[in-house]
Amino acid sequence: MGSVLSRPSGSVSGPFDPAWDTLLRDRDPHWARLDDHERERMEHLVGVFVARTRWESARGFVLDDEMRVLIAAQASLLLLGLDHDEFGGPSRVIVHPSTVVLRGRRSVGVGRVETSGAYRVLGQAHHRGPVLLSWSSVRSGLERPDRGQNVVYHEFAHQLDMLDGTVDGTPPLDDEAARQRWVEVCTAAYDSVRDPGVGPGADTAPNVLRAYAGTNPGEFFAVATEVFLTRPHELRAQHPSLYRELVGYYQQDPTRR
Fold this sequence. Notes:
Order of helices and strands: EHHEHEEEEEHHHHHH
Distance between the termini: 39 Å
Radius of gyration: 18 Å
Helix content: 40-55%
Number of helices: 9
Number of strands: 7
Strand order of the largest sheet: 1-2-3-7-6
Oligomer: single chain
Number of domains: 2
């Protein structure tokens, strides 16, 4: 990964700065759509996230306060309707200028082929560890929300999935009945990605859930979260049952914004 430079939060170490509102209205497509109650909650969440996160940059990248706030606002959107303010323990975010280069063994593709050596990713989340982000990908998600891809939503969805210690596409839910319903609905949508001829969305092309969602259930949840927040109307139209489950879990309905 190369050298990692730890940087203090500087002027963004306190509560929500009113100047951040202008920044977020200009750069974050979701911010201006929040109602007053949602914005008040988000201001609290962003302030907490910025202040409590250990921010680092890699490969000589200069991470500034605006970047921290933009990342914090996107991550905080996942927590907007939840009853907790954090992602399960101390937060650490390492920002790379572009793709993140990693080394080791990994399984790739829907067929889970084992490979080894150097490989590039746009982000990576670790259980009780850091979240790695490519700044170029973060910026792309802000500038092109219509693409349905957002690396911050994706990696912090993994963090929520990991709250129960496993990455299985099922975050902690209220009870066993809710869990069973979640698994049933998500499995049907997951199968529709892996086999486009069956399941929800089979009669609609292309599937709003991109092929990477078929990698495994954990990646399915992360991709579904991206689409839920960036292309909610299309997701609701193609996968209404999945959309209802995500509304129930996240306790927010993006189609109303």
